[in-house]
Design goal:
AAA+_ATPase; four-stranded antiparallel β-sheet; ATP-binding; 12 strands; 9 helices; six-stranded mixed β-sheet; alpha/beta; about 250 residues
Length: about 250
């Protein structure tokens, strides 16, 4: 589904990613861990097409197509979803209207007509129920006055409604207490199928107790320096990152 080869990228002439190789197949959950400043959020942003980052070398293939030149909305229409670490507040735009617009724009890009109102309503209700979201929540302005947990749950709700092929969760666990973390992780697990894939970016192993990855990759100084199974995340929790940095520098 996603194949990244020798990816170099940076911002304002500063090199951040220094040769990333990564392959994600349908049905898989991959986790990327690493110390602060190692390039984790940059990788998420570059896959999603955030325009302030410049790719200087390498390629990103999504379902076999090179998406390097596509805008963020074109990538989203192909099925790439990015859940933000710090979701933006949009006063005056309700959660429902935001999602309706996003779905219909994607359908338009795929040559489909708008989703009929009754189908949209049914889908909104189904997914709200699945994620244990109060209906009143849907009429509120997007993220305005939301708690950290509500903002993150809203991101997962958007993911449920848009049904992407690849969901990238950028530090979805930051600022969440254990209950909110469990609710968000539960939502991700319910949405997981054999046809979609998830890339989880996190500092902490605790999220991976709830969203269990097939593969864990450690990013240090813009490179994936180690990959393994979920046991690698437990090892990092126990020993920190210094031993990996020592291995890299040896």
């Amino acid at each position: 589904m996603l194949k990244i080869h020798n990816l170099h990228a940076g911002v304002d002439d500063k090199s951040i990613l220094k040769g990333i190789d990564l392959e994600i197949k349908p049905g898989e959950i991959h986790a990327i861990m690493g110390p602060n400043g190692s390039g984790k959020s940059t990788l998420a942003s570059v896959i999603a097409g955030k325009e302030e980052y410049e790719v200087t070398k390498g390629e990103i293939l999504f379902e076999g197509d090179d998406i390097g030149e596509l805008s963020p909305d074109e990538r989203a229409h192909k099925g790439v979803f990015l859940s933000f670490q710090y979701p933006v507040e949009i006063p005056g735009v309700s959660v429902t209207n935001f999602i309706k617009t996003a779905i219909n724009e994607t359908r338009k890009a795929q040559g489909l007509s708008e989703m009929p109102a009754k189908d949209m309503l049914k889908l909104l209700r189904e997914k709200a129920e699945l994620l244990d979201i109060d209906r009143k929540f849907l009429s509120r302005s997007l993220n305005e006055g939301f708690s950290g947990g509500e903002k993150k749950r809203n991101e997962i709700f958007q993911m449920a409604m848009l049904d992407p092929k690849l969901a990238i969760l950028d530090e979805t666990d930051s600022g969440l207490d254990i209950d909110a973390l469990r609710i968000v992780a539960n939502g991700v697990n319910k949405l997981k199928t054999d046809d979609n894939a998830v890339l989880v970016i996190t500092h902490y192993q605790r999220l991976l107790d709830y969203i269990v990855p097939d593969f864990v990759h450690v990013l240090v100084n813009g490179k994936i320096v180690k990959s393994g199974t979920k046991e690698l995340a437990h090892e990092l929790e126990e020993k920190g990152y210094d031993w990996i940095k020592e291995e890299v520098n040896a």
